[in-house]
Amino acid sequence: MGSNIGIAKKYLDDGFAVGIPTETVYGLAANAFNEDAVSQIFKIKNRPVFDPLIVHVADLDVVGRITTHIPENAKKLAEEFWPGPLTLILNKSSLISDLVTSGQLTVGVRIPRHALTLDLLKALEYPLAAPSANPFKYVSPTSAQHVINQLGGKLPYILDGGHCEVGLESTIVSFDDETPVILRLGGITENQVKAICPDVRVKIQHLPDSVTIPGQLLKHYAPTVPFIPLTQDSGSIKEDDESIGYLFFNKPNEQILKNSKSKIKWLTQNANMNQAASNLYSMLREFDGQNLSRVYFEWAPDEGLGKAINDRLERAQSK
User: Fold this and answer.
1) DSSP characters for 99-159?
2) How confident is the model at residue 205 (pLDDT cuts 50, 70, 90)?
3) What gap in Å lies between CA 228 and CA 314, rounded to an integer?
4) Whole-number Å distance between alpha carbons of 140 and 99
5) pLDDT attached to residue 219
6) How far is CA 184 from CA 80, 128, 288, in A?
7) DSSP readout, 65-87?
């Protein structure tokens, strides 16, 4: 682990997969033009080949090389949100193999908003295929230590870029002719997309066994401990026991914190949605390491980034 772009580049050039930081989550990256390197991603993550990968690029020139057509609305969204947590689904060129796209004729592309990884991408002669750097279906990593804890023994190098600023995966947008369609909620909100493209549609699907884009599976982003929603009396304790955890959106009142035996965490102290999103995955992982029987959670306000947070919590409770 370290922050040396030259070392990461050498391993990538030699056909290895490495861990990289982005503003969303840490990625498991390999040369998108090298099928042998890409196959390592699926093997290391134990990821089924029917689950396509997102390709990370340095600039729009590379997007033009790996796609055959960029709709005008895609150009508008790219101009507004790139670099940033937005993935666009576009028709792929022959440079992108079917392995990367799971046999589909489209490819997910984005320019990440992380200085270290952008510098790395600019130093490479190829884009990077990079899903999240975690075992398939588990909680995504938001620090280099998270990657070490689960994949460290399988990777020659992890580029350490600190804690991920956004903390949720990218929003994924496809296009029905020119009409944008949001397929996955993430770091860019529906309203942000709508401000640029008022005719945007939302089509979120949680599928049981096969997917067309990353992150569609019903059970995904999930810890091992059971997560149970607080459907009533949100903000209060349902059961009080040291083997039980609670994840609140806001900090609960001091009386609860003082008297409860349960393990209690909260995503934000002052209803800050960005802070809540950034903290979510780290807290899911913390609960997993405490030998708890179950965790009760409070839904976020269902607006803005709260919709993406609730999407991940919904998947966290799926068994």
Assistant:
1) HHHTT-SEEEEE----HHHHHHHHH-SS-EE--BSSSTTBPPP-SHHHHHHHHGGG-S-BB
2) confident
3) 9
4) 22
5) 62
6) 18, 21, 25
7) HHEEE--HHHHHHHHHH-SSSEE
The model's pTM is 0.93
Check if the beta carbon of residue 247 is closer than 8 Å to that of residue 266. Answer: yes
| Positive/negative CA dihedral, 244, 224, 148, 12 | negative
In the chain, the amino acid numbered 168 is L
**Selecting from 2.60.34.30, 1.10.606.20, 3.40.50.720, 3.90.870.10, what CATH number does the domain 5-202 have?**
3.90.870.10
Q: How many residues does the chain have?
A: 319
Q: Give, in degrees to the nearest 5, the angle at Cα 170 between 47 and 155.
A: 40
Convert the pLDDT of each residue in 147-201 to its tens digit: 999 998 999 999 999 999 999 999 999 999 899 999 999 999 999 999 999 999 9
- Are the C-beta atoms of residues 117 and 18 closer than 8 Å to each other? no
Q: What does DSSP assign to residue 158?
A: B
Token pair in block for residue 202:
């939302």
pLDDT tier at 232 (50, 70, 90 boundaries)? Answer: low
